[in-house]
Structures are given as structure tokens and as C-alpha cells.
């Protein structure tokens, strides 16, 4: 079965994946674009503490990777390997594998329509789960579980459980002016306490 990516003529530009050096995605992007290559680095907005202030910082959605649009015939691929920040074009076997255009469009649409923001959280802070089967329930932030997930402490069936959730599905519980947290908690089932 052939996909749209494999049936395009070799002269038609397609998207490929570039593996970058650790934390050098932006450097690789800048240097590739200076050489005239069309690139795409999808990013997430993260809340981080810098110099005591909370700032929204763009971080790569796929750490150590970016996308580049190339034609097999008209583009010179040789300078890519020696570009600062670049390790290689991702290959399966001997040939670089193109990424279907629909996947790139889906990533772009998702990030522009509803760009996720991952909040900076401290252990012990109250958070609310925003999506999934635990939506609208509150929990206590315990720790980060890698860069995209968080550990939360929840009371389930009268027992405290530590569970892992996607960080984009968690938001801080806002406090009112009196200092009391306010939230609407929806019960998952009658008789279950939170």
C-alpha cells in the first residue's frame, strides 16, 4: 500500500525529520533557514521561573527534532549534515523517510487553534485536571514525570494515589482575593468523595 508521501514525484518537495544536537533545535533551525531551507519547529508554551519571574517560554514539541522541506532532485542535501546543531536526517535503512504532508498540517492546525500552555508548578500546589475521565477534579502536584507529564496525588476510593497525567491537561487552581481556592468539582459517581 502506497501513501501520498511515497507516490509524490521525486522533484516535489516533501517534509523530512532532522535530528538535532541536545537543546540546539533553534540553532539548527536558524542555520538551515540561512541556507535557504524551509523548516518547521513546532513549539509548546511552557511557564518557567526565570530570575524570580514567571515567563512563557517556547519549547520544542519534539525535543531534538525539527522538520525540513526538501526535494530529492533540486535540493542539495550535503550541507545539512555539517550545519551547526544538526546531527542527521532521520533515516530508516539507507533512505530518508518523508513525513506525510497531512501530519505536518495536523500539527500546525493543532498548535495554532488551541496552543497548549504547560504551567510551572511547585510540589504541594493544588491543580485541576482539565481533560479526560478525571476532568474537573482537583489534585495535589507532586513532581514532573519527564518533560510532558506530571505526577499528581489524588484521593480515589478513600485512598491516596499518585497518578501520572499529561502536563497540558493540568491547570493551577486559582485563588480568590480572600486567599481561599475556588473550584467546581464534578463527582465521577454518586457517593464518591474527593
What attributes characterize this protein structure?
4 helices; five-stranded antiparallel sheet; disordered N terminus; disordered C terminus; 194 residues; 2 domains; Alpha-Beta Plaits; alpha+beta; four-stranded antiparallel sheet; SH3 type barrels
The tally of strands reads 14
Fraction of residues in β-strands? 35-45%
Major sheet? 5 strands, antiparallel
Overall geometry: elongated
Strand order of the largest sheet: 13-12-11-10-14
Structural class: alpha+beta
The CATH homology group name of the largest domain = NusG, N-terminal domain
What's the rounded overall pLDDT mean?
A: 82
CATH third-level topology of the largest domain: Alpha-Beta Plaits
CATH architecture of the largest domain: 2-Layer Sandwich
Q: Enumerate how many helices there are, as a single number.
A: 4
Radius of gyration: 22 Å
Report the uncertain regions.
1-5, 178-194
Helical amount: 10-25%
CATH class of the largest domain: Alpha Beta
- List the helices and strands in order: HEHEEEEHEEEHEEEEEE
Determine the N-to-C terminus distance.
50 Å
User: How many domains is the backbone divided into?
Assistant: 2
